[in-house]
Amino acid sequence: MPNPQPPRSGTGPAPRARADVPADPRDLEGDFAHAHSIEVRFNDTDAMGHVNNAAYLTYAEIGRAAYVVEVTGEPFQIGIHGAEEGMILAEIRMTDRSAALYGEILLVETRVERIGRTSFSMVHRLTAQASRYAPARLIAVADSVLVSYDYSAERPIPVPASLADAIEAYEGRRLRS
């Protein structure tokens, strides 16, 4: 399934965008440097035909991983596949705003808000494009905290300077506190 943004070249900031849905006072403000499309699968839905709330966490996870791959230009490193260091999700808060339905195309928009010593925070905005099922709308918003982690020592480590530099270049602004 195609992503809404063309592949990037160069080291400048990503183009900023925001999915066009009707205004909602519960929405996140601002634009996003990254967006990733996801088609709602039948097994994501419950008996009422709506996406089960747990699936929204998976959609945010897919968006986070795609963001990191885009920013770093490298495959996502997973600890069980030999990576010695990586990131772990320490916290996520998801707020549902509208039901998503089987067959809809959702857009997961992601940006980094802050980079700390051992962690960074991201926000995610999930929207549905207009479809035969429903009009375009805000589906959910989320914020998360990721921690740089040493898997063998089982402890947090400083966010690698190369990753922080790459995120700031991609976002087009300083994020370190």
What does this protein structure show overall?
Strands 1, 2, 3, 4, 5 and 6 form a six-stranded antiparallel β-sheet that branches. Mean pLDDT is 88; it is low at 5-9. The protein contains two helices and six strands; from the N terminus they run E-H-E-E-E-E-E-H. The chain has helices at 53-72, 161-171; strands at 34-39, 85-96, 105-115, 119-128, 137-150, 155-156. By secondary structure, the protein is α+β, with helices and mostly antiparallel strands. The chain has a single domain, classed as Hotdog Thioesterase (Thiol Ester Dehydrase, Chain A, Roll), CATH 3.10.129.
Q: What is Rg?
A: 17 Å
Shape: globular
Describe the sheet with the most strands: 6 strands, antiparallel
CATH superfamily, by name, is Hotdog Thioesterase
Could you state the order of secondary-structure elements as H and E? EHEEEEEH
- What's the end-to-end separation, in Å? 37 Å
Summed over residues and divided by their number, the pLDDT gives a mean of: 88
Give the secondary structure arrangement, pairings included.
Layout: E1 34-39, H1 53-72, E2 85-96, E3 105-115, E4 119-128, E5 137-150, E6 155-156, H2 161-171
Antiparallel strand pairs: 1-3, 2-5, 3-4, 4-5, 5-6
Keywords:
globular, 177 residues, Thiol Ester Dehydrase, Chain A
Compact summary:
The chain is of the alpha+beta class and 177 residues long. The protein contains two helices and six strands. It has helices spanning 53-72, 161-171, and strands at 34-39, 85-96, 105-115, 119-128, 137-150, 155-156.
